[in-house]
Design goal:
The complex is a heterodimer of chains A (386) and B (79). Chain A is an alpha/beta fold. In chain A, 33% of the residues lie in helices and 16% in strands. Helix content of chain B is 51%, strand content 13%. In chain B, 16% of the residues are buried. The chains are: A alpha/beta (386), B alpha+beta (79).
């Protein structure tokens, strides 16, 4: 499958994976069609009954072209390595762009880890969450920066389309109720349908694409989740809504006593509760993902430097509400019945510097981005399979 | 950050934002010439990571591939 994959190519690849590996890989059509009538499907890899449920999503934001492609190649290589009882090999890559010759070494994930991942996990991958948005983004260069889905305008005559799916999940969705003035100014969300980037939608979980993710999380009772985005070389763990604390379990986004008092910043009077052991586990696994990317880069210090991902909470700079990864994490506290422990990340792959192309890497550099996705996610899956 | 989001022709990636050693903030994105002018008028420093021509070349590479694939898909469907 050639990068960048079209929407049809992605669907075809999912079908091929299921057809070529019928004993291991099942393709499922998600419950809700997109606004433009596209079906959304995902595959589940499971080598044994009772595997720990894991979900990886990509393509929530239309313009982020690399994640769906890298997820599909991850599935292909994982399945082939398992069937061959071989290592999962991450190919070497030489960045031959002008003025540099940077070698990223070949890396291998041992066959024993591949076996554990396939046989101990129930791994679902929704590679392309937002097919309408991707189709629009790939329709012409002027549309390339489209981020949202393609919800039609609310009013006749309006041209304001789309919802930011990663602000639409049912988690502090009505952000204006949650924050004080400072937090409200800082929050990355908007009630304006004409906002090009972060319109939250007409109601919580209003969009078929976000409903699909939520239903997979709930129905499969997912315990490990990664939502793959681009760009900025970061591994983000909960919470994105506010800063973290592990002292006061009453300080949660569900507690109305704090409505209008949350500051959405670091060092303010309010911080979101996360149990210390859950926080520590997030940091530990994120660090394993980070180390896999840096360690897999080889000996060239330039390759290592360009494989450095920052591990940090989602609230690095500003609060975000209604995101997929925070929503997934919230299910262990507030769903009815509560989910099992959930480990949840947003992985921001690639960069706009170093010739990596930001939202849309050119094919010449794409293998560098792809290998980082594979190294990070295989480390994540190895931890999930422990 | 919210004010940046209101600049027409500016598409930035919010998670790229980082605090610099001198306590300023840096964020990366794609900007039209008009958006760059607006940012400078607001007193913000602007550094070009990829020049307009180079970005256009990159888009050309990508859309040449996509257009070919879309044409192939359309032909397959017609058959």
């Amino acid at each position: 499958m050639a990068y960048p994959a079209t929407v049809r190519a992605i669907e075809a690849e999912l079908a091929r994976l299921a057809a070529d590996h019928p004993d291991l890989c099942t393709r499922t059509v998600a419950p809700d069609r997109s606004h433009e009538g596209r079906s959304v499907s995902y595959v589940t890899i499971s080598g044994a009954e009772g595997g720990r449920p894991v979900l990886i999503t990509g393509g929530i934001h239309a313009r982020e072209w690399a994640p769906p492609d890298a997820l599909l190649s991850l599935l292909d290589r994982l399945l082939r390595a398992y069937e061959a009882r071989s290592d999962f090999v991450v190919s070497a890559f030489t960045d031959t762009a002008p003025a540099r010759d940077i070698v990223y070494a070949e890396a291998s994930i041992p066959a024993a880890d591949v076996k554990a991942i396939v046989e101990r996990l129930d791994l679902s991958v929704l590679a392309l969450t937002n097919p309408d948005g991707r189709a629009f983004s790939q329709s012409s260069a002027p549309n390339a920066m489209w981020r949202k889905n393609r919800r039609p305008p609310a009013r006749p005559g309006s041209t304001c389309m789309g919802v930011d799916l990663n602000r639409n999940f049912d988690l502090a969705w009505d952000f204006e109720r949650y924050y004080n003035d400072a937090g409200d100014v800082a929050v990355s969300a908007s009630n304006d349908p004409c906002d090009f980037q972060v319109y939250v939608g007409p109601s919580a979980a209003s969009e078929p694409e976000s409903q699909n993710v939520a239903s997979i999380l709930r129905e499969r009772r997912v315990e490990f989740y990664v939502d793959v985005h681009s760009f900025s070389r970061k591994i983000l763990y909960p919470w994105g809504m506010d800063s973290n604390q592990s002292r006061d379990p009453q300080q949660t986004f569900r507690n109305p006593a704090f409505d209008g008092r949350r500051d959405g910043g670091v060092g303010g009077p309010y911080s979101e509760y996360i149990p210390q052991d859950l926080f520590d586990e997030h940091v530990r696994i994120a660090t394993a993902m980070h180390d896999a990317m840096v360690g897999g880069a080889g000996d060239d210090p330039r390759a290592q430097a360009r494989s450095e991902y920052e591990v940090q909470p989602g609230l690095a700079l500003y609060p975000t509400t209604g995101t997929a990864s925070d929503f997934a994490a919230s299910l262990q506290f507030y769903d009815d019945p509560p989910a099992e422990r959930v480990i949840s990340y947003t992985l921001e792959i690639g960069n706009d510097t170093d010739g990596e192309g930001g939202f849309q890497p050119v094919p010449a550099i794409y293998p560098k981005i792809e290998r980082e996705v594979h190294l990070a996610l295989m480390a994540f899956l190895r931890e999930a399979a422990r | 950050m919210r004010r940046l989001g209101e600049v027409s022709g500016l598409d930035f990636e919010r998670t790229s934002a980082r605090r610099l050693e001198d306590d300023r903030w840096q964020v990366s994105g794609y900007a039209s010439d008009e958006a760059l002018a607006t940012l400078r008028e607001r007193g913000l420093d602007v550094e070009a990571v990829v020049e307009t021509d180079e970005l256009a070349e990159q888009r050309d590479v990508l859309f040449t591939r996509l257009d070919a694939e879309h044409a192939r898909e359309a032909q397959t469907e017609a058959e």
